[in-house]
Amino acid sequence: MEHYTQSPQREIQLFVPGRLCLFGEHSDWAGKYVSQNPDILEGQAIVTGINLGIYATAKANDDFYIKSVNQKGESVEFHCGIDAETLRENALKDNFFSYCCGVAAYMVENYHVGGISIEVKKVTLPMKKGLSSSAAICVLIARAFSKLYQLHLSVQGEMRAAYYGERLTQSRCGRLDQACAFGEQPIIMKFSDEEISIKKLKVGKTMHWVFADLCASKDTRKILSHLNRAYPFAQNEMYQNVQDALGKDNYEIIARASQAIEEGDAEALGHIMTEAQRLFDTKIAPACPEELTSPVLHSVLNDPQIQPYIWGAKGVGSQGDGSVQLLAKDKACQQALVDYLNSERKMEAFPFELQAGGKIRKAIIPIAGFGTRMYPQTHFTKKAFLPVIDENEVVKPVLMCIIEELDAAGIEDIILIIGENEIEDYKKLFEYKLDESYLKKLPKNVRDYYHWIYGIGGKITYVVQKEQKGFGHAIYQAHELVKDDPVLLLLGDFIYKSKIAFSCTTQTINAYNKSGGDKAVVSIKPVPLEQVSDYAVLTGTFDSERPYLMDVSDIVEKPSTEFAREHLGICGEEGEKLYFATFGQYILTKDVFDYLGLQIEENEQREDTAEIDLTGALRHMTDRHKLTAVDIAGESYDVGIPARYYDTFVSYRRPLRTSKTMQDKEPRP
Prior knowledge:
Helix content: 25-40%
Number of domains: 3
Radius of gyration: 26 Å
Oligomer: single chain
CATH class of the largest domain: Alpha Beta
Number of helices: 25
Strand content: 25-35%
Number of strands: 25
Structural class: alpha+beta
Distance between the termini: 38 Å
């Protein structure tokens, strides 16, 4: 077996949430019968990750080692060789670590990876409660291998590895379980035979959910056994009702529910939940009355004490007396529900939210500058191509570090703002094919990286900046491609490392969603007072519930120390003054582009040669209370100034040491 010649040395942090099926339970396995009966429709389900999950660290090891906590909260660990046969044997033992061994076996057999050591630091996800804790650990194992060995698996690639790894155990998991790989992103999953397609949903307005374990009992295997009798051909009216409910009726429910989610209409969505439960009780439950009469579930659904707090409610997963999900009218109602279910009904209830905003699909990297501070090297090598060495001892251009960050955050379209006559240089990086004989001489991990570079080229669009009239002018060149969508902006002369499970870019994207999905976002970092004149400095008020988010009241480009001391300082926990500067990552909304366009138009009319800057546009957003800042748990590395580039070249390859304080903090979902 061919293993990687270079073993990664870094330690990475991971977070994978649980998942909840909002609508379309059972349709994943029902859709597998499409190939046997053409009258059966493909399955469809709406699934979302939640803010409960598994937090872990991972690093390379000679063997397979994992340490975790069991359902009793006791520390448990497992260790074996990294060969597939041993892992397969352990996967079939049906113990606490069998899922982990199954996924590890799949990764070894299909990707020839080396060993790994994983330590689960915290589990906030309740086990065996219908939230796919088993799928979450499977995705976590697949993601750990992918990140450590630079496999660059897509989210669906991680899902596939997690699914087939779990199938190597005695479990017979459904295909929607691994949706937790998408994080807290609601998605529509479509199932046809063994094929799965994904559509991401944007949440129009934040919605407040409650999930509760009914603390009763159900037999999932009996439910599945009875419902499977309706397939592939219905032998009577009862089984035809099952097929209709999981087919054409489910199609109509999914269409209306997805529309309500994207429009942010919680009241309408609640009514659809109640209707979906009524459909289940009428058409599906009769096929397994012993389990699906569900007296405990229905006692909650019909409890008059909860009705004032909810828009609607329904069962979860395979249904029965397992779990219930309730859509609360607002945050106060959500808390009241949790308190009532926990204290009065003696159930285990957990709050979670579908955050407004949704997926950021596009990103801009402006790299058209001359790189004058790095001249004469930039006469021969573009600043974006300057080399750095990562933690795995791979030498790569700065630009690839930035694009890795975007790819890991799920960005689908990357817009490079470049100078005139530069397009061929960049195409050579992403489209040049190495000779096969030369390619075979490269180490396996470097070959895989080459294929990833070649594949990422399909995401890139080039925009030529013919005139250099300021940073804001450069960004505006992409406005026709961005249209009205929010877009991520990363500077071309900074690279990043996170101190927590989420990358710096993902933290910035999450801040956009947490702030409601309608505000521009600036990433920030604390800086000493004596350095404020090197940055744009922001001030405002931090959120009491999410103390890493700031409602920005002002932003000033390179202020004097005197001005900053008087106007821009923010009081810390001990009364000290703190100063926050831009970190180099932004989410720009349509309002920002509209302002930049207006400034460019006014300058042209006045024949003004003043540069168009981004800070002015962001300050305009503060006047409208439309700017959020996020204090990033990470480090940025400058490659645009000689002395700082030297520091970057020396320090970037070292693992980022996380302080004890940061380790104790729960990563920000």
